[in-house]
Amino acid sequence: MIGRLNHVAIAVRDLESACAVYRDTLGARLSPAVPQPEHGVTTVFIELPNTKIELLAPLGADSPIARFLERNADGGIHHICYEVDDILAARDRLVEKGARVLGSGEPKIGAHGKPVLFLHPKDFCGTLVELEQA
Amino acid sequence: MIGRLNHVAIAVRDLESACAVYRDTLGARLSPAVPQPEHGVTTVFIELPNTKIELLAPLGADSPIARFLERNADGGIHHICYEVDDILAARDRLVEKGARVLGSGEPKIGAHGKPVLFLHPKDFCGTLVELEQA
């Protein structure tokens, strides 16, 4: 069912210094920072030949990554995103297998403009999994 | 400098149930489990179209992932591995930029039979980074 690894998301407190780490120290190519007020984050993509790393910095008062950054002061890997062909079929399969889908269970439009769902970390080896319709 | 994302490694306590999650719930293709006593882990690879997920379970008394699993009872993302063309040139660049390389600073032969280095999470957005010579 899962297809490509769409991205690995790394939450950071200070976007500028995280960009410097990836650009200057690791020599990677970065996209411009994009504030996404509707998602409570500012994003920067690190473009690798086969996938992307997404740097996430909190934006606004109720950022969904604020609590994660309280627990992980240096930042850390926040979630991993797999592509699926059909997000509703994927959701139905997961629910049938007993896995928990976060929120209402209805896909939302994610930071890339595509339907996404998040899955409960306790059901997926302690990792927050995002599914994105490819 | 960094090239492809070689793999994302997820540490798990119970390899069988982690395999079931990826095989049965997420419908992915898994490689057979390979005990790697010299690395203190048993590995299973999840083959995605563009990269791999590496499941790591502790093996033996002094597994390098034992402490991580004490702190993360459900498991979690342990490290992320980027490919580099020349690991010694990469190491020298990182040291010049002030980043800390773990251990002696000399590459070791990793679980895939290639030279690897691990970098200090505090210098890389709170994430443990492995570099592997491609």
From TrEMBL, chains A, B:
The keyword Nucleotide-binding does not apply. It catalyses: (R)-methylmalonyl-CoA = (S)-methylmalonyl-CoA. Signal peptide: none annotated. It holds the Pfam family Glyoxalase_4. Keywords: Cobalt, Isomerase, Metal-binding. Coiled coil: none annotated. InterPro entries: Glyas_Bleomycin-R_OHBP_Dase (IPR029068), MeMalonyl-CoA_epimerase (IPR017515), MMCE/EMCE_epimerase (IPR051785), VOC_core (IPR037523). One of its GO terms (biological process) is L-methylmalonyl-CoA metabolic process. It is an enzyme of class 5 (isomerase). GO terms for molecular function: metal ion binding; methylmalonyl-CoA epimerase activity. Its EC number is 5.1.99.1. NCBIfam families: metmalonyl_epim (TIGR03081). Belongs to the methylmalonyl-CoA epimerase family. This is methylmalonyl-CoA epimerase. It comes from Chelatococcus caeni.
